[in-house]
């Protein structure tokens, strides 16, 4: 949450040295469909100071267009370049390491469309990689078929490790919890976990915005999920 003394402390002590603010969304900027008190004011101050900011979220259940619309409904206009998800980072990882892979993706329809738009074939028949994401459309049989793929020994990747996702009605079961369930069923943990707190996702943003680490501030709701 961004309000009161936090706003003043950030502005008074660190604004001068910070060029890029990396902010979480769920549980930090908003909860459900309501922004926290001070969130919009904080972005306004960043903009007035001529600083850059980007929203970095492990929640890949939605695409960037959905996040842009949600933030606009809250009174904040942002562009595509100011939204970066663990799904975006996973696509970059795949393009670098498994560019021609057939992918068994356990994810929402929005994430599946995003993968397909980047040229990846999605299948649960002889896939080259199994990708575990935040699937809010999960069913028993989807989960069972995914476990079958994981047991075959193919590359197994999780988009992020969060056990829960903050929500105004109560925390939602997230990918980190599914990692443990799949481990019980298959005996395997992911070969790679892409999202926060993996430092590589921050390095991608530093490169994208041409900013040094020492001139960057990360703001989130969980110390264990935000790289130092």
Structure summarized in a few sentences:
With 228 residues, the chain is of the alpha/beta class. It has helices spanning 5-13, 39-48, 64-73, 86-97, 109-117, 140-151, 175-186, 199-209; strands at 20-23, 30-31, 34-35, 52-57, 83-85, 102-106, 121-122, 129-132, 155-158, 164-165, 172-173, 192-193, 216-219.
Question: Can you describe what's shown?
Answer:
With 228 residues, the chain is α/β, with parallel strands linked by helices. The protein has 2 domains: 111 residues, Rossmann fold (3-Layer(aba) Sandwich); 107 residues, Rossmann fold (3-Layer(aba) Sandwich), CATH 3.40.50. Helix content is 37%, strand content 18%. Strand 6, helix 5 and strand 7 form a beta-alpha-beta unit. The longest helix has 12 residues. The relative contact order is 0.17.
**CATH-defined topology of the largest domain:** Rossmann fold
Quote the beta fraction: 15-25%
Rounded to an integer in angstroms, the radius of gyration calculated over CA atoms is 18 Å
Characterize the largest beta sheet: strand count, sense, and whether it forms a barrel. Answer: 5 strands, parallel
The number of E-state strands comes to: 13
Q: How many alpha or pi helices? A: 8
CATH superfamily of the largest domain: HAD superfamily/HAD-like
- How are helices and strands ordered from N to C? HEEEHEHEHEHEEHEEEHEHE
Question: Structural class, from helix and strand content?
Answer: alpha/beta
Q: How many angstroms does the end-to-end distance come to?
A: 19 Å
CATH architecture of the largest domain: 3-Layer(aba) Sandwich
* Low-pLDDT residue intervals, each spanning 5 or more residues: none
CATH class of the largest domain reads Alpha Beta
